Amino acid sequence: LRGLPRTMELSEYELQRLAHIQRNHEMLVRLGLAEPHFEKETRGESQVKRTRTRKPIVAPETLRRSARMKGERPQYTSEKIDQFGEELDRECETTGKRRKTNVDSDDTDGEIARREIDESTAAFLREARAALLAFCTVEEGEAPESAGAWKEEATRRWGAQAGAGEGASERQWE
Fold first, then answer.
1. Exposure string (b/e) for 77-94, b if CB count within 10 Å is 16 or more?
2. Residue 55: DSSP 8-state
3. What digits encode the pLDDT tens for the residues 4-54?
4. 156 Cβ partners below 8 Å, 6+ apart?
5. How many structural domains comprise the chain?
6. Does some domain include residue 14?
7. Per the record, which residues fall in region Disordered (predicted)?
8. Given its phi and psi angles, is residue 2 left (phi above 0), alpha (psi -120 to 50 degrees) or beta?
9. Quick check: pTM over 0.70?
10. Residue 93 falls inside a structural domain
11. Quick check: helix, strand or coil at residue 104?
12. Does 17 reside within a domain?
């Protein structure tokens, strides 16, 4: 508790901390370790820090540098820009035609695939309709057989608005 003003009151934690520090110091004195066995070396003139001379960084030649940074003058050619542009236009036209022919062959394959999908979907819907007809009966116990009978059944079940809307006259009720 040396070095602290007596007027200042210490908390319980601070008192406990100082007691630990004092006990540890006493243990070090008993073991003979209180004083460090080496002394700090003082820097003299013999230990002057050497400064490294930095080597200039040589840029590798593999890196791309602009001609302006290298100090080179631009090299102009006698090539006409118009001719170069016409060649590019011709290339674009020929590649565009190739693409169109490939798209045409894909369209026929796509149409065939769409037809197959439509046919399989229609077949599925026919089978589903046949299966549902077994459960779909009128009050008398039998399924309607004509489009008019189906329309009457729909009106009876869901009201006058059943089947109304766009294309109502063209709708198949079976």
1. eeeeeeeeeeeeeeeeee
2. P
3. 656 578 899 999 999 999 999 999 999 888 887 666 666 666 666 778 888
4. 138
5. 1
6. yes
7. 141-174
8. beta
9. no
10. no
11. helix
12. yes
